[in-house]
Design a protein that fits this description.
By secondary structure, this protein is an alpha+beta fold. Helices cover 31% and strands 39% of the residues. The chain has one domain (21-97). The chain has helices at residues 2-13, 24-42, and strands spanning 48-59, 64-75, 78-89, 95-97.
Length: 99
């Protein structure tokens, strides 16, 4: 009987342990945050930038997001706006810049 209660208890808490799947605005914000962190690590410290928006689609077979970010960069009195393309893994740990 003791094992039955333990088993039932584990079955009831197991669904709560799954990671929450991000959708919509939360996913947009997480992708922007991941790219911002990546750019902070790779760009010169005297360059300031702002990630404006993101367009993405999930690639289900490889478990990645294919993304395009609009980024405004400033260095001194010069500035530019461009597109940064990257592939971000679904766990948001790795960024592979493609453009």
């Amino acid at each position: 009987m003791k094992y039955l209660f333990t088993f039932l208890f584990l079955l009831t808490i197991a669904p709560g342990c799954k990671p929450k799947v991000l959708k919509g605005k939360a996913l947009d914000n997480k992708l922007k945050e991941t790219m911002t962190t990546y750019l902070r690590k790779t760009l010169n410290p005297d360059v300031t930038f702002e990630v404006k928006d993101v367009m993405y689609y999930p690639e289900v077979t490889e478990k990645n997001f294919i993304c395009q970010f609009h980024v405004t960069m400033r260095k001194g009195n010069k500035d530019t706006t461009g597109i940064v393309a990257a592939t971000i893994t679904q766990d948001f740990q790795k960024v592979f810049r493609t453009q």
